[in-house]
Every structure is written in C-alpha cells, then in structure tokens.
Amino acid sequence: MVFNPAERYLQNRCTGCGICSSICPTCSIRATPEGKPSYFAHTCIGCSHCGVYCPENCFDLEPAAGSEGVSPVQVDELFKLRRSVRRFKAADLSADELEELLKPLNWTPTGRNDQGITVKVLSGRAAVEEKLVNKFTGILRAVDCFRAVTLMAGPGRDFIRRLRKGEDLLAWGAPCVLLFSSSVKSATPVQDSLIAASAVAMKAEAMGLGTLWGGFIRYAAPLTGLGRCHTALCVGQPVLRKYQMAPERKWKRIDIHGRQGS
Ligand SMILES: Cc1cc2nc3c(=O)[nH]c(=O)nc-3n(C[C@H](O)[C@H](O)[C@H](O)COP(=O)(O)O)c2cc1C
Ligand code: SF4
Ligand code: SF4
Question: For atom 1 of ligand 1, which residue has the closest CA?
C-alpha cells in the first residue's frame, strides 16, 4: 500500500478533532472517546484521506498550500479544443514528452483505491506497425475473412477495403499507442482505465499533442499478443490545425427532486 496510516500516524501532533474518522470511506479508523485514532483496521484502502484532511498533518504529508489550481474556463477550453486526430506527424514522442504525458496517472482515482493500472507504450511508428497494425492485418488476411466481410459490410465496405489494402485505420499513423488495462483484481477495472486514459488525453491536449481513442485497438490488442486492453489512446503531433470550433454536443439532464420541505 502506498499510504499506510498506521505506520505514519504521529500521535503527539493529534488534537483529537475527529475529522479523520468522520471521512474515512471504509470506516477503518476506530477513535477514542476524545476523537483520537486508536486503531486502523485491515479494511483500510490506503486512500490517504485521513492524512490529506488532517489539520495537524499527523500523517506527515507534503503540505497542499500554494497549489493554485486551474480556472473552470481553462478546463472548459481544453474540452472544447479536444478533437480526435487522424493525421499525425511521423515524429516519435520524446522520452521527456512521454513522461510528462503520463504524469496524471500518479493521481487518477481507482475504485477502492486499487491502483492496478498498467500502460503498455508502443513507442515509435515501427513498434506501432510491427506489433499492432501489421499483425492485425496479417491475422485478418490469414483467416481471409476480409473478402466475405467486404461483401457484407454495407456502408462500412470502403473502410474494410482500405484496411485490406494495408492502410492503418487502427492507429491512423500515430507514432505512439498507449494500451491501458487494470488488474483483474480491481473493483472497477474498465472505469479505472477509462478515467486514467481520459486524464492522459486531456494532458495531451494541454501539451499541444493530438489523441485518438482506439476503439478497434481495444479488440485488436489481445489478438496481436499485446494482452488485455481496456482502452487505447493513439498519441502524436497533429498535422492539421483547427480553424473552427465543433458545435456543442447533445446530452441529457434529468433533475430529480426530493419531496418539498423534507
Ligand atoms: C470507478 C470508481 C468507483 C468508485 N466507487 C466508490 C464508492 O462506491 N464509494 C466510495 O466511497 N468511493 C468510491 N470511489 C472512490 C475511490 O475510493 C477513490 O477514488 C479512491 O479511494 C482514491 O481516492 P481519491 O478519489 O481521493 O483520489 C470510486 C472510485 C472510482 C474510480
Ligand atoms: S487511508 Fe483512507 S481508508 Fe485508510 S484509514 Fe485513512 S481514510 Fe481510512
Ligand atoms: S484529523 Fe488529525 S488531528 Fe484530527 S483526530 Fe485525525 S489525526 Fe488527530
């Protein structure tokens, strides 16, 4: 466990305010009548909330003061600007860029704080083509389902035809593909991976990189020997600049109210 409250607790700093036991998500802090933690149960998931919200820093964590955060306008701007990229420059991401890009994974949440995220990085066009695109196309050719699928594909016929010709319609020329998966032991593996990948996608946008969610890749990865993949993200420098903003998307809001006055 990254954070073990029993090992870090400094009793001499504790005022017995009771905040920690009141916010522990798994009710793992038994408190004395004076409100001081007396025991941390084995149900603790190491979420560190007792430490983060302790006014006396009894768990000896780095102080949060000085962190300014970002404005709501800046966050909206990122979401408004993000568009899927399907024309990437061939240039690989540098080691520094990759490290910076993946930093959000140090903080993205996981159900029950399982922290079981793994990111496989296909770095460079050679790796993307060799390990994913060519292998997948090879598999499809080997079973020769292309011919039948092309005939049956209807509106998707051109897509299949181009795939058959060897065009990279999986990663669309991206020089980097990130395969996110979570431990099978996680309480919420698919959600954990999606949250992690979403955070990385927004970080990419902030870094001026482009991303494409790889829906097909999710299914292709296990077939090509790359293993389990809950979600995939293609990343690289975009070729095209955006001249206009996309129109706002449709979504639904349903307000559910309690009984008046209760
Ligand atoms: C998919 C998902 C489901 C979660 N479900 C619950 C839940 O049912 N009850 C709860 O108290 N916390 C829930 N959490 C919160 C996690 O326990 C929390 O994110 C984790 O302990 C890390 O703490 P943080 O969110 O403060 O970083 C969930 C988190 C995720 C990502
Ligand atoms: S780390 Fe989280 S789960 Fe463990 S005792 Fe502290 S608040 Fe509770
Ligand atoms: S929040 Fe900190 S000061 Fe308050 S009871 Fe818990 S450990 Fe003690």
Answer: 111
